[in-house]
């Protein structure tokens, strides 16, 4: 059978289509506006004819930058000198000198014009962070003068000692050049945001592997986001201190394997070997703490451990992937999503390396970002599916449980729920508050069923349910425990109020002149009196039968009169 579509919905879709069409057309028409580009000033790269000195001793003349000083470098001065151009690119010239893990002094004809010093307190050995853009104003009178750059490296990492070519231009143009890696910055922020959402949202869900899987995925994305953000040179436009974002890079390096293997263990069925890798992964966060202590006392810096840590991380990931692949071959086919995600990531890393080999340079590692996004989407889909399946299972269990404890005709709690509640109250008598008990019985329901049919009897039961829920306090628990018998538990009620409520219910149904009346009995349960709760139920039941007998006698008297 073909369902007829809502005409209003069709109109909405047509209107939205024309809105999108007009938006695209407006973008096309506005694209004809010609404006001056931001970065339209000339820059000069000072990459030729430098002299290199180590502690004042000439190492090489006429070298081109980038240049790498021979190690060891700790405690030594590395100097590069050159002659500035006779003509500057503009009247307001600035020079961008990149320094990495080093103090820097800049001289013009032997006169110091700039200095990047280490912190006066903190680590035993000064920490300068990764690549830092130093912007130094150069006066026009410096044309043709000697420029000297003196570096004092504080790290033993293999990357220390590498010096890039300075660039001359206006400060605005140099900043715009640095901002060319803004996609990495945005991508890093995006991963951090996705990670934050995936960590916090599942906290409102019941504990379980599905929730843990989502949370570990969030930490995995946050670690990757921290690493991407710290690697972008554009970050220095936001955080000028280069040492601060470098901490994100280190903590991401040491926590990535820990969160990755925990994600695998909570998202897939794995063997004992993978669970062993989970324990081994604790070595990495432990190494991060040890590295901080070594840096505190000046023995080593995090940067000194970079190569060794990266090597161990690579070995750990290869072993983990190999073990997972073996598990997949043994029949754990659900691991396919994780292996595909990792294969995509590895492929994009290799693609970036190929571009570097062929000297194809991009302003931002687009391929790597694409690989990380696609891998993340696959893992997110797997975790989301797990969480959705678990939620559906819980909802199904809740529905079945509700059906098991709910009367199908009236929607009230049924006999099973009643027995369960009595057991709960009896077993926790010391913690239970004062509880009023009402036992109610619909008079002559059998007569209604026999004379007017069961449909009329069902109508009477539904009518009673609607009325009693209005008459009782909001916190009352109401149960249908038999064909015509109902029980209500009312918390924190006084004895006189309970009797008054019982009389109100009886009089209410009498006054309605309906086809039925209701007999009500009551009793008050006071835990301090140490009387069994089941006895209170019996008292209320006896009270109800007494009320029923009185009502029957009154009806006989009325008939006689």
Describe the main β-sheet briefly. Answer: 6 strands, antiparallel
Placed side by side, the strands forming the largest sheet appear as 3-2-5-10-7-8
Averaged pLDDT, please? Answer: 86
Structural class: alpha+beta
Task: Provide the fold topology.
Elements: H1 7-30, E1 44-45, E2 50-54, E3 57-63, E4 67-68, E5 78-83, E6 94-100, E7 102-108, E8 111-116, E9 131-137, E10 146-153, E11 162-163, E12 167-169, H2 171-178, H3 182-200, H4 209-231, H5 243-267, H6 272-280, H7 283-296, H8 306-329, H9 336-357, H10 366-404, H11 415-427, E13 435-442, H12 445-452, H13 454-471, E14 477-480, E15 485-491, H14 495-511, E16 518-525, H15 533-560
Helix pairs in contact: 3-4, 4-5, 4-10, 5-6, 5-7, 5-8, 9-10, 12-13
What does this structure look like?
With 561 residues, this protein is an alpha+beta fold. It folds into 3 domains: 44-169, Jelly Rolls (Sandwich); 180-396, Rhopdopsin 7-helix transmembrane proteins (Up-down Bundle), CATH 1.20.1070; 415-560, Alpha-Beta Plaits, CATH 3.30.70.270. Helices cover 52% and strands 16% of the residues. It is built from 15 helices and 16 strands. A 6-stranded antiparallel sheet has the order 3-2-5-10-7-8, with no helix packed on it. Strands 1-12-6-9 form a 4-stranded antiparallel sheet, covered by helices on one side. Helix 5 (243-267) packs antiparallel against helix 6 (272-280). It is elongated. The protein starts with 6 loop residues before the first helix and ends with a helix. The model has no long low-confidence stretch (mean pLDDT 86).
């Amino acid at each position: 059978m073909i369902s007829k579509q809502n005409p209003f919905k069709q109109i909405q879709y047509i209107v939205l289509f024309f809105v999108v069409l007009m938006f695209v057309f407006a973008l096309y028409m506005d694209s004809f506006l010609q404006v001056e580009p931001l970065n339209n000033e000339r820059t000069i790269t000072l990459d030729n004819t430098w002299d290199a000195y180590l502690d004042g001793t000439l190492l090489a003349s006429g070298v081109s930058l980038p240049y790498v000083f021979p190690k060891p470098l700790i405690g030594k001065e590395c100097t590069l000198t050159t002659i500035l151009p006779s003509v500057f690119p503009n009247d307001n010239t600035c020079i961008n000198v990149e320094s990495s893990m080093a103090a820097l002094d800049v001289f013009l004809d032997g006169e110091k014009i700039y200095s990047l010093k280490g912190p006066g307190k903190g680590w035993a050995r000064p920490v300068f962070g990764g690549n830092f853009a130093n912007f130094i104003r150069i006066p026009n009178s410096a044309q043709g003068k000697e420029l000297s750059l003196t570096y004092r490296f504080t790290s033993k990492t293999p990357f220390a000692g590498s010096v890039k070519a300075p660039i001359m231009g206006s400060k605005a143009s140099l900043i715009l050049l640095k901002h060319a890696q803004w996609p990495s910055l945005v991508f890093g922020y995006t991963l951090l945001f996705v990670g934050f959402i995936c960590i916090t949202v599942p906290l409102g869900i019941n504990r379980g592997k599905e929730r843990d899987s989502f949370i570990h995925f969030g930490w995995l994305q946050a670690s990757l986001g921290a690493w991407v953000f710290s690697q972008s040179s554009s970050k220095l436009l936001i955080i000028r201190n280069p040492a601060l974002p470098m901490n994100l890079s280190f903590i991401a390096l040491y926590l990535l394997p820990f969160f990755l293997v925990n994600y695998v263990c909570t998202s897939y069925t794995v063997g004992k070997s993978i669970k062993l890798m989970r324990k081994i992964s604790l070595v990495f966060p432990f190494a991060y703490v040890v590295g901080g202590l070594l840096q505190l006392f000046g023995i080593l810096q995090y940067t000194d451990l970079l190569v060794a840590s990266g090597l161990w991380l690579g070995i750990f990931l290869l072993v983990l992937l190999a073990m997972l692949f073996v598990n997949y071959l043994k029949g754990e086919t659900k691991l396919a999503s994780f292996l595909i995600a990792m294969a995509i990531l590895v492929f994009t890393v290799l693609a970036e390396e190929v571009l570097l080999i062929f000297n194809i340079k991009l302003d931002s590692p687009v391929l790597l970002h694409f690989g990380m996004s696609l891998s993340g989407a696959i893992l997110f889909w797997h975790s989301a599916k797990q969480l959705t399946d678990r939620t559906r299972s819980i909802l199904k269990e809740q529905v079945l449980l509700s059906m098991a404890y709910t009367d199908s005709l009236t929607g009230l709690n049924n006999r099973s729920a009643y027995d369960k509640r009595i057991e709960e109250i009896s077993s926790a008598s010391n913690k239970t508050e004062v509880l009023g008990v009402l036992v109610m019985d619909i008079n002559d329901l059998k007569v209604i069923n026999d004379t007017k049919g069961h449909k009329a009897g069902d109508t009477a039961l539904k009518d009673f349910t609607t009325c009693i829920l209005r008459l009782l306090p909001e916190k009352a628990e109401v149960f249908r425990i038999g064909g015509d018998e109902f029980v209500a538990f009312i918390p924190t009620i006084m004895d006189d109020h309970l009797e008054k409520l019982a009389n109100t219910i009886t009089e209410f149904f009498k006054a309605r002149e309906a086809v039925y009346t209701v007999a009500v009995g009551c009793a008050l349960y006071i835990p301090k009196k140490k009387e069994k709760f089941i006895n209170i139920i019996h008292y209320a039941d006896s009270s109800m039968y007494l009320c029923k007998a009185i009502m029957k006698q009154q009806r006989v008297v009325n008939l006689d009169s």
